[in-house]
Amino acid sequence: MNSTGSVLKYQLKSFENLPIKIWDDPKQASKHIADSISLAIRQKQQEGEKIVLGLATGSSPIQVYSELVRMHKEEGLSFKNVITFNLDEYYPMHPDAQQSYVRFMNEYLFDHIDIPKENINIPDGTIEMDKISEYCEAYDKKIERLGGIDIQLLGIGRTGHIGFNEPGSWETSPTRLVRLDAITRRDAIKDFQFEEKVPYRAITMGIKTILNAKSIFMMVWGSHKAEILKNAVEGSVSADVPATFLQKHPNTKVYVDQSAVSALTRFSTPWLVGMCNWDEDLVCKAVVWLSLKIGKPILKLTDEDYT
Ligand code: F6R
Prior knowledge:
Bound molecules: fructose -6-phosphate
Structural class: alpha/beta
Shape: globular
CATH class of the largest domain: Alpha Beta
Number of domains: 2
């Protein structure tokens, strides 16, 4: 209580510009996302309508897909009213190739559910070069004609890419052919064995296409994503980190696991946020941080520095 008798409230300063939901592990979080998707599918079914899903590949959505498959097999969730658009595909890439996103989607989702084949849309990695812009325009138009994407799933690359919108991608970018960042190509070596085999290009939905989705779930799992998560949710909106454009979207939720949050200000330097439970470890961490921050040896720190 202060002298006027009112309860003093700590003013917590938030550094985060996107709503973050922290889960113990990706499995729990993925189950929650799958629940939201199945609820939306069922609601549309009751209204006799179709639902448009934007889908991602990579490791992040795998557990969402396995939960959706389980719901189909054990709970009778039907995908007959679902239309899907995948975010991206390597270019060039044959759909039968081991690393194609067509193959990935079949393996983790489409082969196990009752979605009509004609409702599946994945950028075509075999399209001739001189037909690509026409093809990409048609991809965006088709999404638009169907009333837009209802739910978009996203992962985030270590460059801050969403889809394959690498740093430098502009906010109004449509679906198009892009060059992959060197870091993204290096991260893909695990799938292609040798760096020389990783394609230099990809077809990706644009930032504009993604931002037009009505609702977006971004999944961020693992400590290797901690730094980019911080940049995406705390950094200012900039093409340098394309995921920051999500800060402009009215209905994006970021699902993260415990190991991805370590670099967020509220966990890495909680004293900047306003309130923390001081213990010996935290005091040591804060003192070392202050000393590095202002470039003074610990023993020379003054009261003024601490304040
Ligand atoms: C994949 C895609 C990419 C991935 C991102 C994260 O369709 O669009 O943006 O979501 O590279 O990949 P993972 O999930 O493997 O860490």
